[in-house]
């Protein structure tokens, strides 16, 4: 089951976020993220059965920023904190910044590090990435390729 939410930038460019059922992500239906990580689905936290994912567009991989889903921003990001780290599956860290657009309460994007993260992780158009936050390290955003 795939539930698609549509978000558009001011210029009219569509940002596509999908919430994908874990049955589609693994053969055994188990995508447990461990005790240290929460994932976002809809308006609440989930126990690992669903994860917030994003299919990367050409704009996402070529630009120096990535817009974040407002549910993720609202639940996990601190509006007073600007500096974060992005990590991948190997826990390597890339420094980045979160910028708040000011258009809506929780509209923000990753910048100053996103482009390097894409390049170093060989992310391309069509890749699906998953967002996770570490409960222990509030300034770390984990992004993994699904």
Structure, described:
The model is unreliable at 1-5 and 17-50 (pLDDT under 50). The protein has helices at residues 58-62, 70-76, 114-120; strands spanning 2-8, 14-21, 37-41, 44-46, 50-55, 66-68, 83-87, 93-100, 108-111, 128-134, 140-145. The chain is mainly beta. Strands 1, 2, 3, 4, 5, 6, 7, 8, 9, 10 and 11 form an eleven-stranded mixed sheet that branches. Strand 10 (128-134) and strand 11 form a beta hairpin. The protein has three helices and eleven strands; from the N terminus they run βββββαβαβββαββ.
What attributes does this structure have?
disordered N terminus, about 150 residues, At1g16640 B3 domain, eleven-stranded mixed β-sheet, mainly beta
Low-confidence stretches: 1-5, 17-50
- N- to C-terminal separation? 16 Å
> What is the CATH fold-level name?
At1g16640 B3 domain
Tally of DSSP helical segments? 3
What is the CATH homologous superfamily assignment?
A: DNA-binding pseudobarrel domain
